[in-house]
Amino acid sequence: MTPAALRDYLDGLVRGDVRWSVMLWGPPGIGKSSVVAQVAASHGLALVDVRLSQLAPTDLRGLPIPVEGITRWAPPEFLPRAGRGVLLLDEINLAPPAVQGVAQQLVLDRRVGSYTVPDGWFVWAAGNRKEDHAAVFDMPRPLSNRFLHLDVAPDLDAFRAYAAAKGLHERIVAFLSFRPTLLHRIDAQRPAWPSPRSWEMADALLRAGLDLAPAVGAPAATEFEAFCRVYASLPDLAAILRGDDTVEAPDETSARYATVLALALRCDGPGAVHALRWVTRAYPAEWTQLFLHAALEQLRAKGAVGPLATAIARDRELAAAHTALQRMMRS
Questions:
Q1: Same domain, 297 and 170
Q2: 279-312 residue pLDDT tens
Q3: Predicted model pTM
Q4: CA-CA distance, 307 to 313, in Å (whole number)?
Q5: Containing domain of residue 16, as a range?
Q6: Which long-range contacts (CB under 8 A, 24 or more apart) does 9-12 make?
Q7: What's the CA angle centered on 279, arms 278 and 281, to 5 degrees?
Q8: How far is the C-alpha of 164 from the C-alpha of 79, rounded, in Å?
């Protein structure tokens, strides 16, 4: 499932108060932990993110302390003791078997040593797969059988919506819309490779005027630089957003992508209608669809979809765009 579908599913588990433990599977860097954090925040739940790969068995079970001739376990301070929240056992299958064995008690019995998970807490876990070139251990079958298993995959639409909400640089969003296969591409031969997480890191480098290769790897960074050279030669976008329909439209495919997506990422208020009218006049219908798709993500993040929908519905010239917009709003 996509990160957006994962968010909806986890949201349903919380709303339905389904307390079965959940295991999230997927490649590194696609936002599994971020989705869990978003769901927890949306329901006012606390979040405790425990990286099991960094722990020893005693770190989770607690230290043995003799009390009146009986050994008791002093649980770690990071485990929750009250309230409501999500206990995320992250990187669970990167942890050695001894640590997984202790974690298994938390999943199966909601307790370990002298510690018991409070009633108001969900226990979820996340990990990578062997095909992701991660140094994972096999999950014991008794542990695996006690989880609900959800497979998560990278998704461009989910990343663009996330980028809109976070305000990531428009050139990164436009480039990935043009080269979607570079959203996530594991390179076993290089330490840096593109993923949603590393593109967010690249955003900071781009704003600082630095090379993106340390974040996304040299091949992706080289392609991005070439795309930026196209981006620098775009027509006057500000004039288009002001309603100037005399601006000449570029014909080269990468320039078209850059222009249409740059307009979508910059549009706000009346500018969205002006940009849509310009794209509709300049290019075939599929480019209008591309513009609307990207513009809706931006406007939804700003809570400004209504004015665009109203303006399109009243404009006879944009009748086809109105139909496309209605279809997208229902999806």
A1: yes
A2: 888 888 888 888 888 887 777 766 667 777 777 7
A3: 0.71
A4: 10
A5: 3-151
A6: 9/150, 10/35, 10/36, 10/39, 10/124, 11/39, 11/42, 11/43
A7: 65
A8: 34
